[in-house]
Amino acid sequence: MSLVFSYKEDFLLESGKVIQGFHLTYTTWGHLNQEKDNVIWVFHALTANSNPAEWWPGLVGPDAFLNTDKYFIICVNMPGSCYGSVSPLSTNPQTGEPYYHQFPLFTTRDMIRSYQLLQKSLGISKVFLGIGGSMGGQQLLEWAVEDPFLFENIVPIATNAFHSPWGIAFNATQRQCIEADPTWQQQSDTAGIEGMKVARSIALLSYRHYDTYNQSQAGYTAESAGKPVDEQVARAQTYQQYQGEKLARRFNAFSYYNLSKAMDTHNVGRNRTSAQQALQRVKANTLVIGINSDILFPPAEQAFVAQHIPGAQLEIIDSLYGHDGFLLEYDVITRLITNFLQQHLQQSHTVTATQALIN
Fold first, then answer.
1. What does the alpha-carbon distance between residue 240 and residue 356 come to, in Å, rounded to a whole number?
2. Is it the case that residue 229 has pLDDT exceeding 90?
C-alpha cells in the first residue's frame, strides 16, 4: 500500500536551512500486530523507490524471507528522490514554482529525522528488524546511532559509517558530468538529463567489478578475432550507453545530483566525537554484510562498522557482482539473516529461562 505522510511545520536541516513542511511517500505491507513488535523497516538505495518488492524481489514477498503475511514492512522514499517524497521537482511554497536548483540538501541524518516523525505518527516504538544496503545502509546506521533503543536487530549491507574520499570522488565526477550538460541551469524537469546519462555510466563502473564485465560484456573472444574492431568493443560500450538511457527514463538529474551529495555527507561521527564512538552507541543486535568484490564500499568498511558496534557479527559474501551483489545475492543474504535472527532468538529464550529460574 502506497501512502503519503505530510508534515506541515517548519523542519530544520543540518545545514541550518529550514524547509516549510515536507511530505514522504512510503509503502507498507502486512499489518501491525497487537504488540506492534513485528515491524521491519527497509531502507532503499540511491535510485530505488519505496517498494522493495520491485528491486529486492528475492527478499520481499508472501513467500520470501521478509514475509509480508507475517511482518508489517515499511519503506520510505528518501527526501530528494523523484518517487513521491519531497524533491527538487516539488513546489517551493515560497515561490509557487518547483525548487529545482534551490532544493535544500537533506543529509542522511536529516532523512532519518524526517522518518522519526512518520514513525511517531504510526505509533511505532520498536522495530524488530532494520535492513538496508548501500545508501540505505547508511541511513539505517545513522538511525541506529541516533535512537539506539529503537531497533531490536539491524542488518546494514555493503555500506559504511562515513563515505570515503574514494566514494565522494566517484559522486563528484558524476556531478561534474551533469554540470557540463548545457541544459543543467535551465528551470526544467529535464535539465541536465544528458549529463546524468554519462554520470550513470560512470556509476556502473563502481557498482560492478572487472570480473563482472569480463563475464557479461566481453567483446573479444577467439570467435571474434577476425571481426572488425568496432564489433569487438561494441558490447561494453553499448551496455554503458544503455544503462544511462535506462535511468533517464525513470529518474531526473536534480534528484541524482542531490542524493549523491547526501551520500557524500554521510558520517555517523559528525558532531559525535568520532565514528568509532558513535557506533558504540548502537544497542541493536547487528549483522554487517559485505561483498568481497565491492570496490565502492569495500569489505574493510564493513569490518570497521562491525568492529565498533558492540557484539556485531560480520559476514563477507563471495560474489562476482561487485557492489550490486547486495541486490542480487538474496539467497545468501536470506540464509545469513535467518541464521543471525535464529541465533539471537535462541539466546533470548535462554536468558528468559535463566531469569525465570533465578526468580
1. 61
2. no
Record the cell numbers describing residue 37, joined without a space. Answer: 513488535
pTM over cut 0.85 = yes
Query: Exposed, middle or buried: residue 20 (CB in 10 Å: 0-12, 13-18, 19+)?
Result: exposed
- What residue has cell string 540511491? 46
Location of C-alpha cell 544496503: 133
C-alpha cell of residue 24: 514522504
Query: Looking at the predicted structure, is the pLDDT value of residue 356 above 50?
Result: no
Residue 23 CA to residue 84 CA, distance in Å, equals 8
Helices 108-121 and 253-265 sit at what angle, rounded to 10 degrees?
A: 100
Q: How many CB atoms lie within 10 A of CB 307?
A: 12
CATH number of 168-259: 1.10.1740.110
3-state secondary structure of 91: strand
Cell of 84: 513521491
| Residue stretches of the annotated binding site for substrate | 200, 324
Annotated binding site: 200, 324
Residues 6 or more apart whose CB falls under 8 angstroms from that of 31 comprise 72
Question: Which segment of 10-24, 33-47, 100-114, 212-226 scores lowest on mean pLDDT?
Answer: 212-226
Domain ranges in the chain?
A: 2-163+267-358, 168-259
What pLDDT shows up at residue 231? Answer: 63
Yes or no: domain 2-163+267-358 corresponds to CATH 3.30.420.40? no
Which are the catalytic amino acids?
134, 294, 323
Q: How far apart (Å, rounded) are the C-alpha atoms in residues 44 and 282?
A: 21
CB 121 within 8 A of CB 286: no
